[in-house]
Specification:
By secondary structure, the protein is of the alpha+beta class. The protein contains eleven helices and eight strands.
Length: 258
């Protein structure tokens, strides 16, 4: 029979030294109810940075190509990441191993999907043509689990309410619809009329929420003195009163007051 002292020893949680690990005091190998508040902060930071690193490793392109599979993996990784932070029985070490394994499976599947059309179709990473030459393709709509009402709604959102104007409508792996209009239905462009147009690149933000962005000024080859002079010319004497100031590639400054 066990003594009373032995029974108490069996009931108490193990000490950090008994559990072991690289940093025993942080409780990386113990469930949450057995750790200190400081250890919880360290554990949360470790889980967060692990999620960031795994997301970067999986890559944006793979997220887009494997949308259905991505959804399942994202939910699974999120669930495992939350477990050691919400009082579950999973330790940080176990969670990191599990998350890394799922991310590794993701990367392997993405690599295989780039080399197998069959696997692309199984994982939902293959584009599906829904409209061709103005005709809806019933069998492909069934494959995409989309009805005619959904298709017409998506076409209207893309600015193509008349299906006869659509050469191709394709459901892409992330679940978004892309369309290619017929040549006769394309909007008239300047090049069709032989007109020359000025360059239109990305505008430069000079003031953001009342704060002057010196990096934007350097990129535009301008000084803060020039910006203040422009503001004063428009009756603005304090940059903090400007919500947004944007300079386009033609040198036009647009202001939005706070």
């Amino acid at each position: 029979m066990f003594s009373a002292r032995a029974a108490v020893a069996l009931r108490r949680p193990p000490s950090p030294a008994e559990v072991g690990g690289v940093w025993p005091g942080l409780g990386l190998l113990r469930p949450m109810r057995e750790i200190s508040p400081f250890a919880l902060l360290v554990r949360s930071a470790l889980i967060f940075f692990t999620l960031v690193l795994l997301t970067r490793a999986m890559g944006k392109q793979q997220v887009g190509r494997l949308a259905p599979f991505a959804f399942a993996v994202a939910i699974s990784i999120g669930t495992v990441a939350a477990e050691p932070l919400t009082g579950g029985q999973v330790s940080v070490a176990e969670a990191v191993v599990s998350m890394t394994t799922m991310a590794g499976a993701w990367i392997v599947f993405a690599w295989l999907a780039m080399r197998s059309n069959w696997l692309k179709d199984v994982l939902g990473a293959e584009p599906i043509v829904l409209v061709q030459a103005g005709r809806a393709l019933r069998e492909n709509l069934r494959r995409a689990r989309m009805n005619l009402d959904d298709l017409q709604s998506q076409l209207r959102l893309k600015g193509a309410p008349n299906i006869d104007d659509v050469e191709f409508a394709i459901i892409e792996p992330p679940g978004q619809l892309s369309i290619i209009r017929r040549a006769q239905a394309e909007p008239l462009q300047a090049r069709d009329l032989g007109l020359k147009t000025p360059y239109s690149g990305l505008p430069t933000v000079l003031i953001h929420d009342g704060r002057v962005l010196k990096k934007g000024l350097r990129r535009a080859g301008l000084s803060e003195a020039w910006l203040r002079a422009e503001l004063e010319r428009r009756g603005v004497y304090d940059p903090t009163s400007v919500l947004l100031a944007v300079l386009d590639t033609q040198g036009r400054l647009s202001l939005s007051p706070r």
